[in-house]
Every structure is written in C-alpha cells, then in structure tokens.
Amino acid sequence: MEETMNDPLSLLLVFLVINILAFKLMGLDKEYAKRQAWRISEQFLLSLALLGGSLGIFIGMHYFRHKTRKPLFQVGVPFIFCLQVILLISFSLQNL
Prior knowledge:
It is built from 4 helices and no strands. The chain has helices spanning 2-5, 8-35, 42-63, 71-94. The longest helix has 28 residues, at 8-35. 23% of the residues are buried.
C-alpha cells in the first residue's frame, strides 16, 4: 500500500478526483444558493481545498461565479494553491 501512494500516477489520480469533486461541489452549492436550499458549508469547501482540491475550488469559483466576493475564498484558495504547488515542487526536487 505504501508503495502505491509513492507512485506519481496514483497521486495524480487522487488529486484529479479531489479537484473534480471540488469543482462539482462548487456548482452544486451555487445551485443550492439560487434555490435558497440547504448549502454546503464554507468550512467543508475550504477543507477540500486544503486536501488538494484548491484548483477545483478556484476554477469552480470563477466558472460558476460563486463565492468570488468572499475574502476567505478570494485570498485563501489561491494561497492554498500556491502552497500546494511549492510543496509539490520541493517534494519532487527531493526525490530526484
């Protein structure tokens, strides 16, 4: 199991799934907001961004025009994404 998680293709697949889920949840929350129905919490969406879905959340924010006025999302999601890119690059450089 440990060997599988070190496989770059497996990690890429995990991040792809998380980001697709994050994007879809942004669209779903936008629909719920229009209908004034039950909503997906901001805390959950930001947690998803921290778990690797920051790109999906960011793209969803702009595609669905959702949560774009919230400072926590305006600044927080790009900040999380930048941190994740830096971590990914440093991890990749250590394994060369």
